[in-house]
Amino acid sequence: MSESARKDSPEQAEFRQYCQDWLKDNTPGEPPVRLPQSPLEIMTEPQLAYLQAWQKAAYDAGLVGCDYPVEVGGGGREDCQRVANEEMIRARTPFMPNVIGLGMAAPTVFYHGQEELKQRLLPRLFSGEDIWCQGFSEPGAGSDLASVQTFAEKKGDKWVINGHKVWTSLAHFAEWMILLLRTDKSHKYDGLSYFVVPIRSALGNGVTVRPLIKITGETGFNEVLFDNLEVDDSYRLDELGKGWQVAMTTLAHERGAGEKVTPRSGGLKSAATHATTTGNLIELARGAQRNGKPATDDPLIRDRIMQLVIREEGLGQNQRRARVPALQDHPARIMLQNKLLSSEIAQDTASLAVEVAGASASLYLGDDNAPAGGQWPMAYMNSYGMTIAAGTSEVQRNILGERVLGLAKSK
Amino acid sequence: MSESARKDSPEQAEFRQYCQDWLKDNTPGEPPVRLPQSPLEIMTEPQLAYLQAWQKAAYDAGLVGCDYPVEVGGGGREDCQRVANEEMIRARTPFMPNVIGLGMAAPTVFYHGQEELKQRLLPRLFSGEDIWCQGFSEPGAGSDLASVQTFAEKKGDKWVINGHKVWTSLAHFAEWMILLLRTDKSHKYDGLSYFVVPIRSALGNGVTVRPLIKITGETGFNEVLFDNLEVDDSYRLDELGKGWQVAMTTLAHERGAGEKVTPRSGGLKSAATHATTTGNLIELARGAQRNGKPATDDPLIRDRIMQLVIREEGLGQNQRRARVPALQDHPARIMLQNKLLSSEIAQDTASLAVEVAGASASLYLGDDNAPAGGQWPMAYMNSYGMTIAAGTSEVQRNILGERVLGLAKSK
Amino acid sequence: MAQPKNYGFGEEAAMLKESARKFFADNFSTEKLHSMVAQDPNPERMSECLWDQALWQEMVALGWTSLAVPEEAGGLGMPLAAVAGLVEELGRAAFPSPLLGTLNATYVLAACDAGEAALAAIAEGATATLAITNAAGSWDIRDTGVSAAGGKLSGTASFVQDARKSDYLLVSAASGDGLGLYWVAADAPGVTLHPDAIVDLTRDQAHVTFDNAAAEQVGADGAAALERALPAVWTLLAADICGAAEWQLQTTVEYVNARQQFDHSLGFFQAVKHPLVNVMCAIDESKSLTYNAACAYDTEPEEAARCAHMAKASAAETAAFASGRSVQCHGGIGFTWECFVHLYFKRQKHSQLLFGDAAWHRAKLADILIGPVAA
Amino acid sequence: MAQPKNYGFGEEAAMLKESARKFFADNFSTEKLHSMVAQDPNPERMSECLWDQALWQEMVALGWTSLAVPEEAGGLGMPLAAVAGLVEELGRAAFPSPLLGTLNATYVLAACDAGEAALAAIAEGATATLAITNAAGSWDIRDTGVSAAGGKLSGTASFVQDARKSDYLLVSAASGDGLGLYWVAADAPGVTLHPDAIVDLTRDQAHVTFDNAAAEQVGADGAAALERALPAVWTLLAADICGAAEWQLQTTVEYVNARQQFDHSLGFFQAVKHPLVNVMCAIDESKSLTYNAACAYDTEPEEAARCAHMAKASAAETAAFASGRSVQCHGGIGFTWECFVHLYFKRQKHSQLLFGDAAWHRAKLADILIGPVAA
Predict the structure, then answer these.
(1) CB of D274 within 8 Å of any CB in chain C?
(2) Would the pLDDT of D3 be above 90?
(3) D274 contacts in C (CB within 8 Å)?
(4) Is C199 at the interface with chain A, CB within 8 A?
(5) ipTM of the shown complex
(6) Which of A93-97, A195-199, A219-223, C172-176 shows the lowest mean pLDDT across its residues?
(7) How many CA atoms lie within 13 A of B333 on its CB side?
(8) Looking at domain A133-243, what is its CATH homologous superfamily?
(9) Left if phi > 0, otherwise alpha if psi is -120 to 50, otherwise beta: which for C238?
(10) Cα A46 off chain centre by
(11) Which of B139, B218, B289 sits opposite C136 (nearest CB)?
(12) Gap between the terminal Cα atoms of chain D
């Protein structure tokens, strides 16, 4: 019996067996296209199609949305998403493309949307047929999210939206967006409201999506401009002026601290491409030379790799300890560290890899001699996306200092 | 010809020769007592007496206060203190005990005191006959110096002082104190005034000096309590309410960024006892064992020592570059880094030494087997005095960010 | 054998940890600690051994010294995960005692071929400590300063922890047959304790000379026994560090919340806030790795060394970092003898370097994960 | 010979540095750089070699390529301290050019026994670059991928900087007589340039294959010449890094002063302010060590290696640190292609690792200051 199974309830145990059986026959084979490093970097239709097909299959089999009620397209189970995730990760399935939908939009719509809206939107969200994106950041509102200026004006029973969102991953494929905007200019926090809005159907008709190019040269995120987009009031989540509270639900789930477990498959270790792990770093070091010997023989490199191995294992063990109540100091203390630590560990791992590769780290994706196909320098650059997006590391440290340690708010 | 001499003016060249000649015959021999690591840690009368005798001799010979006018007891020379310092350091003379007097009180009294006061106080300050201390910090005013509460009330033409100063090094030997206090409670900055006050002569009569014990177990600084101490208005420096501006003169000189060059002799490299330098660290490492070999054979130790060697040399070269106008980016940029960098380099050097000593670092001064007599763990603990006192490293970084980079004031 | 998800840290372990915390909170405030061990600040003071023996007897009565003794030897046979919980609380209280030494000796004895009698003595309340380090402070198993011949010990064991609080010494000694482990009373003939004058006020330390001292061999293959047991020693030291670091964090947080400068509490400033968050994250990493190491020791012995190297390497870094920040964030007051942070600062610097510093453990870990460096 | 206090950085040097700064400010804005080199963001793009040749010709006309050429070979024979000042400005502009390669070749040629003709060519405007690194990217002098026999070269030189901007290659090659240095036209028969597809948009790089290519031996004892000259190479790269890092610092300071969040400019927050101060301190350390290294090269050759190892080790760390903070402090916009910081980020990562990273230089420094490790 696997260690994860040790504490299963009868329902979980049965479901786990079901997942294992299904995955044995239905885990997709090699992808026909090179996959991106994460779902947020899906660039091409063939990539999307392959991943969408997998998500749909997993949803149809009941492995996605298991803990949501049947009425909204869920599986009606209790604490089973975790089980499905464990088994999908064990089976090394591909990741699912609708990450923002599953991880942020679904719980937000579920906890704050009207019943009819939930029933209409969530099934196609779970199945991956509708891709979702997130409209929070703006050119003038990054870390200070509450300063968003995108504005919705009431005209009859419609809202007319104008504004400019940035860093919207997946917007070029998205049907829907979760949108934090302003309905009242006189109050910073209480002037915010929260909508779901159609993107794809409104393209050229109030919505423009423009790709932004990343430091790596990849596309993958976008800016989205709203020019008098009209939406129905039924697309509003929760009350007018409660947008900030609704956004907190989104952000809590983004940080892994929400009530709903996000459906997850694949993950780093099963990514078809190169992952930023110490295991891959050690492989790189075995092949790299330093002073005429493998870099793995260099005591400094060994020491620095071990520093990262320890941080990586510590992060993993944090997740394990977070589920042992007697070993907690504060309910959110460990979970709120996840994003900060995982992004900084990835950054430092990629940074060390670049040093280990040495002169060869100059070589990029288009070079045949590049170690690991040039993906280490790309991973290093992409790591700044992780330490900046979704709350910079600086903001994460504020959150931890204020919510967990109880230090005075820095603003 | 020495490198320092290369650019001497005729006056400087002649003076340099004079210093060299005098020092050849007058550099004191081995001290009769174990000396402390710095003048601020003088604990005993015999230590003080030895160092005071040296300062007096150097002053009488014209090597102290050279650049001050003759009327206030100075040498009336131009830019010659630097020369005297170089030669005293080269000659490895002991340090001078009246560091606060020379480095902070003298320029402050000189630029802000009345002529009569200067003529009365400065000669005995330069000679070291009067030791000075500094009354700035209070229990409630550390980094936020302007919040001092020690209060002087005007009664007739006298001021009556009440309050509580802390971290006053040398107060147990001091005749005089430079004192930042409040004469108006309604304005934070503009309510401050600056005095010189007699300490020793007022002991038991308005002034109490109590030793504070450091984390190392050493004494060396004190708290000073004022209980209705009466002082004359002539002891005030500059105008009433200008205390903050006067204090800035003191602090600029403390940071090495003031107009007057502080007379300095000895310095770390000639300290009779153990100094926190990478040279001594390397010596320690040669004698320490790691995995059955000298610690100097351990590649990690070698690398970490070299990191410190480079920082130490960088700091030294900063001082050199600060005098080449064409290689400056901003007039105060380098000098304002001194205190921050030197204290952190010392801290990291001592910290690494403690690691290099390994198990033996547990042994303290009283243990016969302690490497370097147990002075490395003491130096490590004392290093926090350096990163805390005279503007914590955090405050230093604020100053650099605001004054040099022009970033917004953090308060 | 797979590891239990919860580290095998069950209800009994949780109760033990909770009761230990309560015991120290009720009986041994930091103020009491300070007034006990910090009477003489003179840096040239001689070695002292100051501890609360009455309280220690209560701990013995609670069975804490026999927790790790196997049931067949008369102990409670609790898993290391549970013992680590107790030691975390011990570290948080910085309680001077022979508990850690006695637990260390217990794990080594349990890995020996002839440790039963000694274990029984521990189960009955005897205290002990390891004497396995040479004068150079080498942490490698085979580097002992003591030799054995015909059941008699000669030489010097250095850096013996809490020696003056211990009834017995568990000594590693080299002989023609390799490395053996020996059990000897601390006051036996030919055994002389030479107290060290140390920085840490919450422990005592000594070097011990053996002058043809008769001792009982308890482990014929001492290297194997130490190899098996040292992961437990490292894990417990890591647990002690985690507890002490948590004290440092909480005490510093309390101070920076109370202390006002520039019209704000110090905790408002990111230059204070963010380092304290980093301390918290470091502690959490070390704690998680510590319980993982304990669990591996209990359930997957072949993983015990790997996991314990991680735990002690992480904890050593945490000890140094938390200590530095605790003094720096306390500012001037933190630099004084009267402020309690120095007690933990000194204990942590000692723990950081004891039984291998971070770099030493990482080098060993690399040998496991990457393989040794080709000669 | 004692070092001059002012690094020998006299009026002429100050004027050169000032005029270089003005030259780049007037003629080559970062915007121009970006529009020139960052046209194709595709990460799988092939290698490109984009530079402003007209501006380059102006630089040649200003005499910048012959600054370091000894007067007897027709150059200006300026000290390295002055040349470093120019290169600092080159780095600040991140100007793509063969200047650094040509200067590097100059110093090596000047240390050769038969470099006069090649130096004369450089003095007349020819460009050159070093081809002394093997495919493993080893920075050790003797590790070449090229062999020489009868005046003909065979093999591969890798990581050749700005190869496509260079008229000549200065190649290290092994033969029965040891390591020799050879001068060969980049378009000579038997010489083939294979452009690398690299991250850095401000340089080009190639590996060069030699197929029995005729070349002129300029240095019989190549190891000695490289040992003498490489400190200059490291120093100039450090100077380039310092200039680029200063651009990163100033640009980031400007951004965080302008950008408002939470009712304050970003620079208000210590989590932004303090790291930028640390970047400034790192730059100053590297700058001071760079001019020290240049001065040592000029006046105390026996100290040149020690000082240059320090300069490049420091600059490599500064490059990495300043780059990371420049992107992080720019936030989301710093992560985009349209924001100019990526140009310098990529150049600096390249410079960081070129001709030895920080750890490599520190290891060499330790050999000097501590002595080599006993075998």
Answers:
(1) yes
(2) no
(3) 270-271
(4) no
(5) 0.93
(6) A219-223
(7) 26
(8) Butyryl-CoA Dehydrogenase, subunit A, domain 2 (2.40.110.10)
(9) alpha
(10) 21
(11) B289
(12) 34
Task: Please check the confidence at residue A341 and state whether its pLDDT lies above 90.
Answer: yes
**B252-256, C288-292, D135-139, range with the lowest pLDDT:** B252-256
Q: C301 lies in which domain range?
A: 224-370
Q: Is residue D105 part of a domain?
A: no
Alpha helices in chain D (DSSP H): 11-27, 30-37, 53-61, 80-93, 99-110, 116-123, 222-258, 270-299, 301-334, 341-353, 358-369
Q: What pTM did the predictor assign?
A: 0.92
The three-state secondary structure class of D129 is: strand
Q: What is the CATH number of the domain that holds D257?
A: 1.20.140.10
Q: Which residues of D219-240 are buried (b: 16+ CB within 10 A; e: fewer)?
A: bebbebbbebbbbbbbbbbbbb
Which chain D residues are closer than 8 Å to A389 by Cβ?
332, 335
Q: Is the residue at C308 inside a domain?
A: yes
Q: Chains A and D: how many Cβ contacts under 8 Å?
A: 141
d(CA A227, CA A209) in angstroms, rounded, equals 11
What is the longest distance spanned by two Cα atoms in chain D? 73
- Whether residue C277 lies within 8 A of chain D, CB to CB, comes out as no
Structural domain contains residue C186: no
Chain D contact present for B213, CB below 8 A: no
Q: Does domain B275-404 have CATH number 3.90.1150.10?
A: no
**Yes or no, beta carbons of B406 and D257 under 8 Å apart:** yes
Compute CA C28 distance to the chain's CA centroid, rounded to the nearest angstrom. 19
Contact between residue D161 and residue D140 where contact means Cβ atoms under 8 Å apart: no
Angle among Cα B206, B209, B211 to the nearest 5 degrees reads 165
The whole-number average pLDDT for the span A351-374 is 96
Chain C residues touching residue A310 (CB < 8 angstroms) = 285, 289, 310, 313-314, 362, 365
Say if residue B270's pLDDT is above 50: no
Token digits of residue B198: 């007699």
Residue B268 has a pLDDT of 39
Residue D226 predicted with pLDDT over 80: yes
CA D274 to chain C, closest CA, distance in angstroms equals: 8
Residue D86 lies inside a defined structural domain of this protein = no
pLDDT tens across C322-350, in order?
999 999 999 999 999 999 999 999 999 99
Mutant choice from A290, A300, A410 vs B, greatest count of B C-beta within 10 A: A300
Interval A151-177 mean pLDDT:
95
CB pairs under 8 A between B and D: 159
Of the candidates C159, C334, C338, the beta carbon closest to that of B359 is on: C159
By C-alpha distance, the chain D residue nearest A139 is D333
Give the tokens for residue A132.
């979702």
- Fold (CATH) for B3-98+106-129: Butyryl-Coa Dehydrogenase, subunit A; domain 1 (1.10.540)
Contacts of D130 in chain A (CB under 8 A): none
pLDDT at residue A256 in the model: 76
Per-residue pLDDT of B50-81, as tens digits, reads 999 999 999 999 999 999 999 999 999 999 99
Is 70 exceeded by the pLDDT of residue A6? no
Look at residue A268 in the predicted model and tell me its pLDDT. 39
Active site residue B254: yes
Subunits next to C (3 or more Cβ pairs <8 Å) are A, B, D
Q: What is the pLDDT of residues C63-75, one digit of tens each?
A: 999 999 999 999 9
Judging contacts by C-beta atoms under 8 Å, the chain C residues touching residue B291 are: 138, 140
Beta bridge partners of A85: none
Number of domains present in the structure of chain D: 1
D271 to chain C: nearest residue by CA? C270
Specify whether the CB–CB gap between A68 and A110 falls below 8 A. Answer: yes
Those residues with Cβ within 8 angstroms of residue C361's Cβ, 6 or more apart along the chain or in another chain = C234, C309, C310, C312, C313, C316
* Closest by CA position to B229, among listed B256, B260, B198: B198
If contacts are CB pairs under 8 Å, which of residues 283-312 in chain C contact chain B?
none
